[in-house]
Structure prediction request, 156 residues.
Amino acid sequence: MPYQTDISNPRNILALNIRRLRGERGISQEKLADLAGLHRTYVGSIERSERNVSIDNIAKLANALEVKISELVKEDPA
Amino acid sequence: MPYQTDISNPRNILALNIRRLRGERGISQEKLADLAGLHRTYVGSIERSERNVSIDNIAKLANALEVKISELVKEDPA
Prediction:
């Protein structure tokens, strides 16, 4: 059985959306961190669901990815 | 000119949605806090946009209000 991310964990929802949107834009974690005004290692830990990210930083990431905040926490991005 | 909440502030978006949904459900701040497992004064400060709420606590509030996390951070709830 392939690895499945548990989307009942809100940190995983955020991580999946950020990874997906960053991939679609073809930008690195470092570039995203730079655009959002956050540290590269912090963005890495968010993408590994390790961080309990605050609304202010979710908003910075949404702005950097040019999506609405709600897009970053959508369970079903389709 | 009537008081307008600045929805470019992500804390205000969250605060407005929580107040609206709590009002629609006819429950008090204390009841919402109880349902979410958070402190009553903390919920009050979230509704006044004073807190930089984390994704884990946003998820607790969404569960308590029986909506998706993305509903709590939607700029346009209509």
Chain A has one domain: 10-66.
